[in-house]
């Protein structure tokens, strides 16, 4: 605190001394400044410096003597540093160049005594470093400064001693602009910087301080120049200041009093040069013009410095002092910009130098500057620049003279508008004496004003056209315009002059001396134009030719060379209005020839003729369709044609006497009417013809001759019309003909009248051909068309509209629905049935509608003679009638059909399916059955026990889903278990009901369900196996048909060995048992009423063996059992192997004994049975109904027979048949149907055995027994496990398919020589795999794929045919790709594993390459392209299965066939779902 108080006291004393010596100090500084300005020598400055140094000791002594003792103590060690601290002023400020002077203003005043004392005192209180850390000194300094919190330490400024917070430190020269009192001198700051910055905390000047200071003062010109020079330099040092530049410019005001007269010379009459008037009262007081710097926007280029300038530009004197280089600095981009020349030109255009032409020297300089800028511009910019100038003001100087001969007087000078002056070089001697003409002053030319600039402003080179036309009467060109044309050609005419010359009448016409005409009203002489009477030719001397230059000038003025198209067309249109006798045909023809010549390529009228296409001027002819007369008329090019064939439809055509092709080409006349016009005219002709026919009929026309004439006239007319339209078929498109497809426009004779038909109602007549070329099918189709529909001769146009050669199936079907009785009457029963077959094979509808169901169009037959001899070729007699589908029934049970009179469908499978689809029901569905048990009933009889044992034994076979195409009931297995009760009855009667009729018949077996938990089967003493099969089928099948009942009866009746060898899965019913023991004799069955419980099926092995005749029964019962239908099928010891095999294979009965040999074993009998089973061929009935290929086993029968059987044995059908009783009649078993069923079941078993992998082993070992066949039968669980393993293996093989090779395939032909025995192919025993050579086909999508992403390839062996075919028929690829995509989904394959290729040669339908599948498009196009239906999908489904089997086997052997069948059967459910979605 003591130190601070001592500092305050001493600084206060120095402040008092500073104020007391201010006047003396200022005077001394002024004297020294004056001496420096007067050029004193450097030695005097050194003396002054030495004098000041001599005073230094005394100063130190004075300081010490005046300081308090504490202050003296503080300053005692400072003396040694005073000399080092106080330096000369030039040493501190540095080199005195412009940059240093602006950033560090020169302050060369020497330090006074007060400043030296203050420096010593301030340095004495600065902290000295005594520790390594400078923070210690800073903390001491801050503590010293804050010990008096109300005031900061004092400092010495230019205005005296003040507090540190009230002073400011200099900053890059800012102190030079209005901070003289509170600014610390730079020399003082440099000697005591630590005191000012750390102790006193004096703030530094900022740009905001400068802006506030400038707002309160007006800068002199010198300070303004310094500020503008200083700003770029300080911004280079402190870049952050540049952001405050605009605020600084807004704050600056300056004194512009001395700068006012620099921009423009004062006008005459002005008394003051300034903006403020002066007063007479005080001459010493002068007004001051203060301006803001923000009003200055531009600085001037050097070429405008001496010219009048706008107020928004810097005064020239300021700009010269500042310098253009400084003003162009980037820091001034937002302050000033270079004055645009356009703005200056706009400003100077309003100045009196251009508006009045004075002062003349300024006018000349301005004009020279404007001319120089004008010459630097190009094109349209010159015109825009001239528009800125005052061309209507007297802005151009001229040399005036007092005479009219053009002599120039240099003593007189005036200004005039440009359009009243002429160039100095203009020769106006030809117009001497006519008027006075002024020329531009030659001083402008000498100053550099160009003629181009003067002409652009409006200066003329020749006399005005107005002046010329005022003196036309004084010149002689009324009869000879050649001198006038010569002068005008040499003169420089403005656009306005040319416009007046074109519109003024001043030229004479040939043969007319009384009038003059405008140039556009006259023509140059041309003999071709003499045909037009309205043409006037220009008067020109005949003895003198016309130079090309004058000819072109006249054409430029508007004199015509050719007749305008409007004039020609007006003349021809006027001639067309005249009557034929009044018109000069020769003149008209010449005019038409001239017109067509000018319409040629690059002709005069070619572009403008389109507007006259509707003018009628062409001679044409037209045929009157009523009378047939040819009429001459005039038509426009748009309404006539040059093809004479179109005249048959009433169109106008060019007169054939003319050059029709030449005229039509030049006038753009069409050859034929457009398709739209033809269709419209055809409709008009149809309407007119219909109206004539209607009018004739309504008028009560009974004259047959008139009717015949009208008919012939209409038919002849339309025959010609259709013949012409047929020649235009290539021009029509479908949308043009859409209107015709919906209307009746085709006339045809029907019953002596003309009737118009729709295209869908009439068909073409078939051309006659030789009888050998006609087929019966074509005859049937032709007869149908001829009988049912109207016909007409073939015509290409009618074919394009929709008339067809024969009706489609849809059209025939629609006619049948609409008029079924008429169709039947026209065709007869045989052809009508044939038509129904066609419709049934390919129904022309997607779904059955109510109309189809309710329409009686189906043939129904009512049988009237049931008893027909078997040799009668005519069959049963029946009557046919048309009926609805619901009134006709399908015969699936002829027995039931014979019981009641009913309408039945034709007994053909195709028609039955079609009838059923529409709504017909099966006979078995509509005939209801009910059974009545009569007489006493017995339970637990030998018959019921034997029957129960048989059902228990054959239960797996009965429940096998492969035995019937009908689905099983959900509780079928339960019914055949413990729920089934068997009772023997005395009699059973069946009741059949149909509608209101009923019949009763006797049967031998039936089933009844007493409760939900129990079902009873009733048997008579002599049951029929067919009745038993019907009863069992009704219990386990959802719908039991005849074939189902027959199959079930065979499964129950036949021995197990017979069923095994015929392919049934009898291994499911075999059980491993020990040697059977005879059961104890059963107790005699008591005869009880039907209420007693019947025989139940036992589920234990003993029940299977208890099938022998029971001992202890009555003789009648044993006799019944002997003669019953339940023998023991396994009792081979009693019957013998030989008798069993002879019964199984009667066609090979002679071979059985030789094959068995003496004492055959069971295994030997099995081998012989297996061998004979492979040898049996299908029966005759089976061959008739077989549609597929032969079973694989037939292919090896010859090989097997050669090993064991003589080839000379005869092959006969299996005659082991069973007769079933039905009342009095008998039924013969359908061997054909059963053969088909047995064959299918056998094939299914074979597929499974091969599928598990044993097929290959069997072929190699050449064994006769199937795989897995042993003495131990297979259980159902084992069968299921085997099937699951097979399906897993097949699924893995299918999913192992690989991606298609994108580069294509090129493989040679391969021969497989190692085939299994018995599968040799060809003469050499080899299988040949064809070669493949395909490459990618780019296709329209550009990605070598179809739309759904399947790869497409083309064969390279014949690429000239394959690639173009794919390009033209890629729509077939798209359709085929959809089929492949759907089938790939069925097999769960990715689309990258399949591909489509086209190979026109060879026989390969598809192939498998590296587990990728390739399908030939050729077979799809040939077989299925026209109709993609279920047959198409079935074909390619099997092809898929065939090729996927190659993932397992390469060769085409039995193993491959087995895998093909297994794959097809495994994916069959998914394929069936796909087929259900296909329409």
Give me the secondary-structure topology.
Layout: H1 2-20, H2 22-37, H3 42-54, H4 56-66, H5 69-75, H6 79-85, H7 89-93, H8 98-103, H9 113-124, H10 135-145, E1 154-157, E2 160-163, H11 186-191, H12 193-199, H13 207-215, H14 221-237, H15 245-251, E3 253-255, E4 290-292, E5 298-299, H16 316-322, H17 324-327, E6 337-338, H18 341-348, H19 352-355, H20 360-376, H21 380-387, E7 396-399, E8 413-416, E9 421-422, E10 438-439, H22 442-446, H23 451-457, H24 465-470, H25 482-490, H26 495-503, E11 507-509, E12 512-517, H27 548-557, H28 565-577, H29 585-598, E13 618-623, E14 630-635, E15 640-641, E16 652-654, H30 660-667, H31 675-698, H32 704-726, E17 746-750, E18 753-757, E19 762-764, H33 776-788, E20 790-792, H34 796-801, H35 809-818, H36 820-827, H37 829-841, H38 850-854, E21 858-865, E22 877-883, E23 889-890, H39 894-899, H40 909-918, E24 921-922, H41 923-926, E25 928-939, H42 942-958, H43 972-975, E26 980-994, E27 997-1003, E28 1005-1011, E29 1014-1019, H44 1025-1036, H45 1042-1053, H46 1056-1061, E30 1095-1096, H47 1102-1105, H48 1115-1123, H49 1132-1135, H50 1137-1144, ...
Parallel strand pairs: 5-6, 9-10, 15-16, 19-20, 23-24, 26-29, 37-38, 38-40
Antiparallel strand pairs: 1-2, 3-4, 7-8, 11-12, 13-14, 13-16, 17-18, 21-22, 25-26, 26-27, 26-30, 28-29, 31-32, 33-36, 34-35, 36-37, 39-40
């Amino acid at each position: 605190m003591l130190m601070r108080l001592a500092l305050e006291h001493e600084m206060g004393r120095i402040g008092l001394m500073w104020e007391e010596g201010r006047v003396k100090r200022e005077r001394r500084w002024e004297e020294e400044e004056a001496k420096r300005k007067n050029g004193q020598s450097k030695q005097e400055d050194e003396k002054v410096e030495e004098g000041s140094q001599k005073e230094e000791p005394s100063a130190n002594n004075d300081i010490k003597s005046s300081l308090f003792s504490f202050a003296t103590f503080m300053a005692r060690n400072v003396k040694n540093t005073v000399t080092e601290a106080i330096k000369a002023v030039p040493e501190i400020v540095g080199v005195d160049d412009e940059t240093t002077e602006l950033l560090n203003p020169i302050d060369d005043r020497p330090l006074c005594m007060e400043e030296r004392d203050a420096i010593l005192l301030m340095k004495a209180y600065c902290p000295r470093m005594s520790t390594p850390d400078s923070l210690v000194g800073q903390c001491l300094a801050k503590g010293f400064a804050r010990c008096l919190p109300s005031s900061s330490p004092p400092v010495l400024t230019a205005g005296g001693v003040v507090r540190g917070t009230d002073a400011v430190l200099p900053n890059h020269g800012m102190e030079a602009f209005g901070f003289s009192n509170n600014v610390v001198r730079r020399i003082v700051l440099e000697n005591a910087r630590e005191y000012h910055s750390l102790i006193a905390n004096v703030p530094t000047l900022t740009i905001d301080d400068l802006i506030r200071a400038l707002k309160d003062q007006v800068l002199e010109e010198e300070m303004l120049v310094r500020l503008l020079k200083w700003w770029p330099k300080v911004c280079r040092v402190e870049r952050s200041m540049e952001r405050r530049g605009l605020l600084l410019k807004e704050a600056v005001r300056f004194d512009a009093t001395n700068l006012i007269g620099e921009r423009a010379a004062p006008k005459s009459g002005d008394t003051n040069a300034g903006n403020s008037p002066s007063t007479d009262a005080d001459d010493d007081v002068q007004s001051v013009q203060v301006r803001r710097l923000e009003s200055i926007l531009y600085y001037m280029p050097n070429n405008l410095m001496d010219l009048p300038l706008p107020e928004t530009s810097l005064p020239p004197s300021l700009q010269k002092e500042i310098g253009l280089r400084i003003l162009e600095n980037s820091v001034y981009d937002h302050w000033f910009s270079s004055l645009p020349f356009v703005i200056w030109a706009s400003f100077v255009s309003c100045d009196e130098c251009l508006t009045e032409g004075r002062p003349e020297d300024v006018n000349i300089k301005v004009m020279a500057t404007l001319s120089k800028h004008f010459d630097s511009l190009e094109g349209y910019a010159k015109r825009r620049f001239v528009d800125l100038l005052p061309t209507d003001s007297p802005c151009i100087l001229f040399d005036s003279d007092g005479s009219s001969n053009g002599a120039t007087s240099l003593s007189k000078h005036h200004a005039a508008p440009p359009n009243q002056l002429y160039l100095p070089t203009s020769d106006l001697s030809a117009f001497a004496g006519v008027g006075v003409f002024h020329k531009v002053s030659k001083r402008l030319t000498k100053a550099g004003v160009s003629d181009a600039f003067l002409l652009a402003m409006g200066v003329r080179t020749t006399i005005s056209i107005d002046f010329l036309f005022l003196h036309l009467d004084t010149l002689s060109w009324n009869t000879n315009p050649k001198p006038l044309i010569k002068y005008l050609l040499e003169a420089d005419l403005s656009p306005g002059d040319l416009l007046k010359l074109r519109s003024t009448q001043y030229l004479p016409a040939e043969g007319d001396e009384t009038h003059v005409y405008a140039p556009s009203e006259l023509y140059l002489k041309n003999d071709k134009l003499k045909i037009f009477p309205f043409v006037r030719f220009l008067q020109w001397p005949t003895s003198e030719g016309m130079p090309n230059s004058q000819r072109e000038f006249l054409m430029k003025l508007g004199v015509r060379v050719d007749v305008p198209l409007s004039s020609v067309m007006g003349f021809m249109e006027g001639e067309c209005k005249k009557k034929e006798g009044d018109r000069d045909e020769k003149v008209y023809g010449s005019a038409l020839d001239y017109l067509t010549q000018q319409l040629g390529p690059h002709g005069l009228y070619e572009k403008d003729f389109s507007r006259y296409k509707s003018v009628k001027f062409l001679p044409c002819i037209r045929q009157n369709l009523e009378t047939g007369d040819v009429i001459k008329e005039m038509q426009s090019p748009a309404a006539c044609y040059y093809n004479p064939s179109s005249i048959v439809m009433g169109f106008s055509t060019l007169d054939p006497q003319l050059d029709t092709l030449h005229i039509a080409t030049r006038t753009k006349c069409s050859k034929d009417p457009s398709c739209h016009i033809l269709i419209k005219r055809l409709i008009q002709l149809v309407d007119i013809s219909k109206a004539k026919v209607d009018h004739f009929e309504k008028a009560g026309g009974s004259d047959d001759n008139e009717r015949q004439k009208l008919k012939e006239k209409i038919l002849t007319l339309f025959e010609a019309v259709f013949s012409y339209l047929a020649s235009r078929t290539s021009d029509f498109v479908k949308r043009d003909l859409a209107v015709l497809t919906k209307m009746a426009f085709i006339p045809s004779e029907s019953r002596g009248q003309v009737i118009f038909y729709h295209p869908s109602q009439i068909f073409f007549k078939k051309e006659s051909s030789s009888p050998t070329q006609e087929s019966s099918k074509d005859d049937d189709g032709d007869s149908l068309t001829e009988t049912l529909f109207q016909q007409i001769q073939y015509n290409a146009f009618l074919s394009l509209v929709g008339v067809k050669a024969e009706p489609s199936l849809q059209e025939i079907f629609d006619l049948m629905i609409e008029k079924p009785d008429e169709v039947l009457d026209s065709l007869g029963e045989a052809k009508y049935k044939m038509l129904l077959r066609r419709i049934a094979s390919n129904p022309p509808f997607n779904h059955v509608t109510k109309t189809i169901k309710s329409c009686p169009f189906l043939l129904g037959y009512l049988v009237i003679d049931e008893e027909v001899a078997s040799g009668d070729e005519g069959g049963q007699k029946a009557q046919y009638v048309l009926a609805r589908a619901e009134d006709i029934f399908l015969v699936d049970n002829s027995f039931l059909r014979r019981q009641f009179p009913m309408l039945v469908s034709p007994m053909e499978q195709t028609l039955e399916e079609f009838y059923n689809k529409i709504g017909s029901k099966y006979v078995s569905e509509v005939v209801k059955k009910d059974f009545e048990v009569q007489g006493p009933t017995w339970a637990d009889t030998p018959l019921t026990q034997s029957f129960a044992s048989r059902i228990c034994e054959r239960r797996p076979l009965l429940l096998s889903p492969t035995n019937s195409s009908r689905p099983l009931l959900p509780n079928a297995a339960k019914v055949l278990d413990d729920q089934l009760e068997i009772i023997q009855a005395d009699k059973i009667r069946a009741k059949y009901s149909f509608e209101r009729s009923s019949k009763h018949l006797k049967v031998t077996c039936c089933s009844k369900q007493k409760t939900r938990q129990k079902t009873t089967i009733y048997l008579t003493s002599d049951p029929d196996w067919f009745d038993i099969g019907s009863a069992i089928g009704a219990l386990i099948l959802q719908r039991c048909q005849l074939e189902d009942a027959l199959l079930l009866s065979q499964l129950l009746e036949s021995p197990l060995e017979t069923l095994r060898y015929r392919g049934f899965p009898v291994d499911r019913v075999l059980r491993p048992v020990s040697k059977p023991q005879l059961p104890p004799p059963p107790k005699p069955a008591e005869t009880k009423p039907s209420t007693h419980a019947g025989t139940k099926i036992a589920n234990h092995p003993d029940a299977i063996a208890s099938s022998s005749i029971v001992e202890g029964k009555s003789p009648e019962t044993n006799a019944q059992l002997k003669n019953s239908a339940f023998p023991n099928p396994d009792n081979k010891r009693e019957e013998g192997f030989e008798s069993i095999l002879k019964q199984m294979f009667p066609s090979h009965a002679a071979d059985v004994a030789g094959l068995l040999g003496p004492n055959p074993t069971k295994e030997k009998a099995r081998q012989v049975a297996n061998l004979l089973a492979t040898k049996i061929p299908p029966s005759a009935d089976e061959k008739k109904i077989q549609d597929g290929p032969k079973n694989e086993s037939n292919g090896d029968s010859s090989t097997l027979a050669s090993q064991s059987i003589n080839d000379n044995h005869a092959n006969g059908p299996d005659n082991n048949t069973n007769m079933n009783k039905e009342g009095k009649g008998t039924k013969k078993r359908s061997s054909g149907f059963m053969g088909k069923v047995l064959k299918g079941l056998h094939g299914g078993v074979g597929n499974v055995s091969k599928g598990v992998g044993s097929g290959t082993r069997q072929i190699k070992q050449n064994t006769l027994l199937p795989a897995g066949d042993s003495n131990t039968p297979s259980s159902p669980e084992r069968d299921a496990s085997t099937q699951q393993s097979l399906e897993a293996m097949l699924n893995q093989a299918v999913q192992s398919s690989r991606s298609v090779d994108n580069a294509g395939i090129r493989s040679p032909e391969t021969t497989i020589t190692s085939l299994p025995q018995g599968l040799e192919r060809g003469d050499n025993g080899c299988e040949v795999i064809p070669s493949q050579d395909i490459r990618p086909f780019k296709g329209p999508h550009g990605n070598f794929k179809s739309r759904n992403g399947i790869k497409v390839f083309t064969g390279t062996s014949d690429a000239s045919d394959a690639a173009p075919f794919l390009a033209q028929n890629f729509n077939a690829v798209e359709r085929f790709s959809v089929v492949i995509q759907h089938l790939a989904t069925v097999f769960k394959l990715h689309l990258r594993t399949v591909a489509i290729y086209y190979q026109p040669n060879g026989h390969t339908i598809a192939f498998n390459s590296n587990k990728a599948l390739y399908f030939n498009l050729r077979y799809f196009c040939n077989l299925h392209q026209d109709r993609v239906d279920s047959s198409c999908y079935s074909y390619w489904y099997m092809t898929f299965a065939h090729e996927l089997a190659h993932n397992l086997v390469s060769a085409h052997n039995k193993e491959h066939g087995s895998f093909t069948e297994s794959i097809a059967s495994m994916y069959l459910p998914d394929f069936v779902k796909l087929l259900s979605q296909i329409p």
